[in-house]
Sequence to fold (345 residues):
Amino acid sequence: MKKVLIQLFFTLFCCSFLFLLLLYSKECILLASNGLLIWYKNMIPTLFPFMVLSGFMVRSSLSLKIGQWMQPILGILFHLPAQMLYVIFMGFLCGFPMGAKIVADMLEKKQINLKEGEYLLAFCNNIGPLYMLGYVIPLFGYKNVWQVLGLMYLVPLGYGLVLRFYYFHNQKESAPLSFPSTHSKYNSNISKKQTDFELTTCSYHITESVNYLSCFQQSLSSAIEQITLLGGCMIFFNCLQIYPQILDQYFCTNSTYTYVSFFPDILCSLIEIGGGLKQLADSGSIINSLTSTYLTLSLLTFGGLSCIIQTYFIIKNTGLKISTYMKHKVIQSCIYLMVVILVRG
Fold:
């Protein structure tokens, strides 16, 4: 019965979407063009170099060294092994979908286990600061830049700290990862920091000879594939915004209720965050209020259906569940919505 309902849903969706593509061809072409431009002008310059660089560091085992450099800062807060600190650092610095990609790469290389990957994915796959500074903040004209950035990243950081006790509260204090004896310099560096983890299921090896050109080639190929998938998703899901636009045209334009008037723009953001935020900013209905800041941050934290699908493409062969990832994203988004309610109250 469930399979029949799912099949019926997708059949109706495909037929209706095909009909709308033909009936509203000009509008759909414009929406697709907007998605293409946002991908070309904002996503490729800000994400692609980070994708290549991060993949190279994971494949060449340089990520451990970066994680060790983060120990004096992040290690005090999280008490995690170096490779997990690297995921946190790069996930917050590079932004979506780098958090998911780094977790997937490390699971593939068996540098972390599934439980740790699920934990890291829950709060490290966020909209990046470059995207915030280059697109979101200019789009809405926010003046208090550092306050907005702080609000954007303090919630997932705090959520990760709280979640750590949920995932690892049964872990006993133990020695960090053990490495082959031939690499004493790495052993001596790691032994300076005790962690709460003993990754007995992982095999993390540092080889003396690394083919850096081969690592770069693999990272480049993987980054091209991921950035292309990202662009395809943005274009397709931007076209889906024709549904909220029709809703706005026939039901919400003449509404006497303030919040109903920008509901289609919120719905667009839930479908594809980049194009949806642009429509929300263009509407100008709630942009200058404090409520709009938290509402925008809530939408950015959730990321939209397009971001969820992209994350699924990245983690589908890792054993991680997209439903678990969505649950954590909804919780973090609701934190901002609770602030909205408190502010309005």
About this structure: The two ends are 44 Å apart (CA to CA). Residues 172-207 have pLDDT under 50 and may be disordered. The first helix runs from residue 2 to 23.
